[in-house]
Each structure stands twice: as C-alpha cells, then as structure tokens.
Amino acid sequence: MSTGGSSTRGSSTEAFREAIAAAEELVRTAKFVKTEQDLAEGLDYLAGSIRASLQMAWSYQPDHPFLVNSTSQHTKMGLDNPDTVYYHANIRPDVTYVVRGRRGTTVDLSFQVLGGDYTPSSTPDGSTAFDDRELEIAPDGTFELSFGPAGAAGAAAHHVVLPESARMLAIREVYGDWAGEQRSSLTIHRADTLGQATPPLTTEGVDKRYAVAAKMLIGRIKTWFVFPEWFYLNEPVNTLTEPRPTPGGLSSQWSSVGHYDLQDDEAIVITVPRGEAPYLGFQLGTVWYTSLDYVGHQTSLNHAQAQVDPDGMIRIVVAEHDPGVANWVERIGHDRGYLQFRWQRLAKDPEDGPTMQVVKDADVASLLPFHEQNQVSAEQWRARIAARQTGVAQRMLG
User: Fold this and answer.
1) pLDDT at 138 over 60
2) How confident is the model at residue 41, as a pLDDT?
3) According to the model, what pLDDT value does residue 152 have?
C-alpha cells in the first residue's frame, strides 16, 4: 500500500512531542512543588493539559462550529468549579452564529464572548456576558439566540453583536442539586454554512493543528502558573477577601478568594451567611490551581449540599482529619492550596462575606454553636460521597 510519500515528509508530531517534554520540565521544576503528592498531581495535570490542547486544536472550526466540553474532571484548569459544566466554541466576528437550546433546571446558564484566550500576561476581553434571564424562553423550555455583526442576515430575535475581538463563545451551566437538576441541551451552527459539507483533511492542515496544540500546551501551563499570583497569592495567607465581582466579566458572579497553609492538626472554620443568592459555592484548589478530587471526596460544597444552621449560617470545616460533621471539606493531604467562594444570579451585591478562623482540630467543636446537629455518622458520610459520584456520572454523560 502506498504511503503517498509520507516517509519523506518529516514528523507531524515533532513540535508537539517537544512541547510535551518542555511542559513536563515546567511541571517538575515548578517552585511550588514540595511533596510527592504535588508532583504526582502535577503530572496528572500535565496529562489533562495534553488532552485538552489536542482537543482545542482539533475543535477549532469556526466555519462549522460545535460545542466542546473544554474543562472536565479529566481536563482541569483555572480552578474549575465542581458545580459547573463548561462548553466553548470558536467563532469569528464577521459572520453569524445561531445557538439553540432547551433550558434545563440547573441553577444558572450563562454566555460569555471572549476576545482570545488567557495568557501568561493577560486575561481575555469578556465584556459581552449575560445569563439566561435575558433570553425569551418558550413554555417548553426552548430558546434561540444569535451572535454576529449588527444587522446580520439569519439573526435571531435575540441577537448579540460581536466585538471585533471576538474569538470564542464560552457557556457555563451551574448545578446546585447534582442529582435533582436536569442539564440543558445546546447546539451551535454558523448561519451560512449549515448543511454544507466540511472540507477533507490534508496533511498540511493536520501539521498545523499539531503545531497549534504545541503552543497551546506551553501557554496553558505558563498561564495558570501566574494567574494565582494576580488574584490570590498577593493576599495574606489564611484569609479570605471581601466579596468582589469575579475577574473576567462573568455575569452576576461575585467571589471571595484566599490561600491557606496549615499544619496536619490544624483546621479552618469558615462561617458564611446562606443569604438569598440562588447559587453559593465553596471549593478548595490544589497548588496547580485546579479543583481537588470532587468525585470521591467532599472537597467542595454548594448551597444545596451544605447544612445550614438554624441561625441561617453555613459553617464549613476545612480539615485533614474527619471532624464528624456534615460540612467537612476534605483537604486529602493538601496542607497548602486555594480557597474560593462564588455567588451567582445575585439581585444585589452580597452584604456579608465569609469569616474564617484557624484552630487546632481539637478546638473545632467549640466554634460550632450547633455542633450536635452538625454531626453525621459514617453511614451518612458514605451516602454523601455516593451522591457526589452518581451526580458527576450523570451530568458528565455526552
């Protein structure tokens, strides 16, 4: 069988293989790697970044776009929210794209037009951001909107004018009750190419995608190394900021952030008002600025999962060792990492943020005024973990 001369073309994957080696060196020599666990998680993070870079390069099809799960439990980045399903599609500012869907019952569905991607020196322009409250949703849950130039042919009744910088449409769907809420269905197409055949593959085109994936991989690793220094590490350790609008233009989202450094027998007790926000979420992050394992461990809590005390407060215990309470957020060996609160779909700015106190494990109960009601049995804890495992399995299908 003829190879069509491929044996003399050189290597299509050489640049990507070199990028993998360079990325591994960045991971192994990162200044925050201090333990075997840090390195193991870094190498796991590298694997997810390799997969994501290839996926991003091959999904770049602004002429025939489709929605891609850009971040998942296997391709983590940017302190990914365990409650969120992330989608994206590449777009061009000079043509029209139509998004159709059927709204599920999740807490939030938001849309954001990004001008490029995150880099080691900047965040993308995200000025065009809104959520489903701005859409006209039919009684059966269906909706349609479009993105493109002003006055474009084929535009929907709800049309978003794209800025010249537009390069990507990001969609986030946020869960509260992981088991009880239904995921939305979403599609995207370019108005003037729907029904047209896609062009055939060429070796030159494949070579280009490998080269793009190589650049994406290195850029991804370097970007998320520096991002925490902009927004987290400049704050005093073992503190949380006042709630503030989330950087990057996310619609209706506020955040409170921090980083921690604890001894093995130390815990953090965090108190936050439940409030009226439709969504309230808290999570821990690794030194790689990714979520901890949120499937087999309770390393995050949201408003539907957390126990609310009779006084309207949520009291969270971040600890290595089990304090025997429902709102234990597990460190699972991470003595250093990031803390993140998010509020979404707010009608007004949050008035009161979280407070936190570092204590010895033995003193945790003294800071829980409803400690007796907070306690859970081993069987109840297993049920909480089982709910997380089945919830993620259900929402990550497809």
Assistant:
1) yes
2) 97
3) 85
Compute the C-alpha angle 232/178/109, nearest 5°: 65
pTM of the model: 0.92
Pick from 46, 60, 155: nearest CA to 99: 155
Single out the residue of 236, 382, 329, 290 nearest to residue 74, CA to CA.
290
Beta pairing, strands 355-360 & 336-344 = unpaired
Mean pLDDT along residues 245-269: 89
Alpha helices in 106-262 (DSSP H): 203-231
Cβ contacts of residue 143 below 8 Å, gap of 6+?
100, 101, 102, 103, 132, 135, 136, 137, 158
User: Which amino acid appears at position 193 of this protein?
Assistant: T
Strand 279-285's sheet: what is its strand order?
A: 244-245, 254-261, 336-344, 279-285, 300-302
Q: Is 198 exposed, middle or buried (0-12, 13-18, 19+ CB in 10 A)?
A: exposed
CA atoms within 13 A on the CB side of 377: 3
For 163-166, the CB contacts below 8 A with 24+ separation are: 163/93, 163/113, 163/115, 163/125, 163/127, 163/128, 164/93, 165/93, 165/115, 165/116, 165/125, 166/91, 166/92, 166/93, 166/113, 166/114, 166/115, 166/128
